[in-house]
Amino acid sequence: MSKAAEPTIHQGSCLCGAIKFKVTGQLGAGEMCHCQQCRQWTGHIYASTEVPRMALSIDDESRLKWYPSSKKVRRGFCADCGSPMFFDPIDQEKHQWIAIALGSFTTPTAVKIEQHIFTLEKGDYYEITDGAKQNET
Ligand SMILES: [Zn+2]
Fold first, then answer.
1. Count of domains in the chain?
2. Cα 70 to averaged position of ligand 1 atoms, centre (Å)
């Protein structure tokens, strides 16, 4: 284990590199969402980690576009390359976290997938076989 003084910095970007971000400190547990919205948004599954919103800094937000997928949540993606990246609760007072797509990270995450959610809505073309906890909703 390293000494506690320096917080870990995790880095990531969209496919084209227009949006780069940093997360200071440990990433939250990994989660895979199989709901229909996440399936259609990502093309498969939204694998993400939740971090405190304060821990995330985005270098340049000019190409970041937000799609309000419901009244409660907006989804952030790159307007140039289309990479799905952020899942952001709109009520930021109540929810002080943001989810980041694990696939966006370009540095090691040290994250393990701990649970699957909305498995009732999963696609019919794959099975979940990693042994992580499964929640139907
Ligand atoms: Zn991009």
1. 1
2. 23
